[in-house]
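Holo prediction — tryptophan.
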Amino acid sequence: MSYKKVILTGDRPTGKLHLGHYVGSLAARVKMQETHTQFVIIADMQGLTDHAHEPQKIRENVLEVALDYLAVGIDPKKTTIFVQSLVPALSEMTVYFLNLITWNRLKHNPTIKLEIQQKGYGEEVPAGFMIYPVSQAADITAFKADLVPAGEDQTPIIEQTVELVRKFNRLYRKDVLVEPQIVTSQFARLPGTDGRAKMSKSLGNAIFLSDSPDEVVKKVKGMYTDPGHLRVEDPGKVEGNPVFTYLDAFGSDVGKIEEMKAHYAKGGLGDSVVKRFLLEQLLAFLEPIRKRREELAKDPHQVMQYLHAGTEHANRVASTTLAEMRSAMGIDY
Ligand code: TRP
């Protein structure tokens, strides 16, 4: 019997997903579900670590994120999609893991340090936020994941997970847990429509998978291009020009894209012409996704059914791992 490697990945349900998510993770998930055993976690508890005051936002976005997943082709028959808070074994594992890591180590996690700064917490860091990397270690190890596809910013969290796995297995003299490996996307980050390095909901420079054609038109028309390309005759910059980056990522007519790049670099091709072409390609890419999403959104109960079925499977796997852990620890009363 051939062993399929296990993937665990997921998102915090804090907003709808956009083209940056598609390029950075969703496209890979659609592919990987054919060759791997894939679990995708909707990490609502992790979302609450910095949104405790707006649980309704988390609740709404569990459904929105699920719709985005299904619309792009993550298939609940091939991928186990589940909700973090509905898998209690993850919380229990977190408590055991917390005894195997020092407070000092948590404080020095570079991702956490950066996020504390960005969120302006000062001395008022929620304790749940401080320990979310440990809860994430539970998410990953409960499913004995071999691979965690994630952004570069998740590297310190996966390193911490590996340390916890080693510590647990060594301390309790049993190879219960599996060391995961991070797989960072081979794609560079997708820039925002404003030309900034990262597309992000909070920066207001995102095109969402659920945007209407009108919204996409507006956003593409307003896109940043090459600020030095003042007149049509001027040579323009292709490198670092988000309009061309998007064409590379979402366009299907490679020949025409290459032709346009050469023409733009030489001069004589106006931004509005390139944008019109990008719109055509982008709308063609988004159209089937938006249609499927609209169709699915008519029956939210069915969507939640998919999540409940996935969660049931996730619970079986996670509670088996938890039982093995308790047995290794000798607390299997
Ligand atoms: N921390 C991830 C993010 O912010 C979300 C997440 C939660 C996750 N649990 C995970 C990612 C486990 C990979 C594996 O996007």
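READOUT: The chain has two domains: 6-190+300-329, 213-294.
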